[in-house]
Amino acid sequence: MDEQAATQALAALAQPTRLAVFRLLVRAGPGGLPAGGVAEQLGVQPATLSFHLAQLERAGLLDSRRRSRQILYAARFSTMRALVAFLLEDCCNGHPEICAGLLGDLVADEPPPEDAPAEDTPAA
Prior knowledge:
The protein is of the alpha+beta class and 124 residues long. It is 52% helix and 13% strand.
């Protein structure tokens, strides 16, 4: 991840509603949640939620896909891992062993199977 992408992702998360949305979708896992379910669980008006979902998607933190009449949103775990790896890249002032296990898990060559949600028709 480059500095510009990291800055965009961090800026998107630097807002309480968007942070809550992202954390909820991380907990939901790769299957994600419909927008209405996110709005209901967080108590956010749908129009407001749409704005926040768009910001997170634009920053590369979410994926959306259409399932019938619903749009499902899911955290993009590959971006989340890349962001954390970027933040830890120069860890510990020359003592990378302090966070080596964590960094190794985050930048593993092969992403875990839950990384990619099941493909449906992409949302417009």
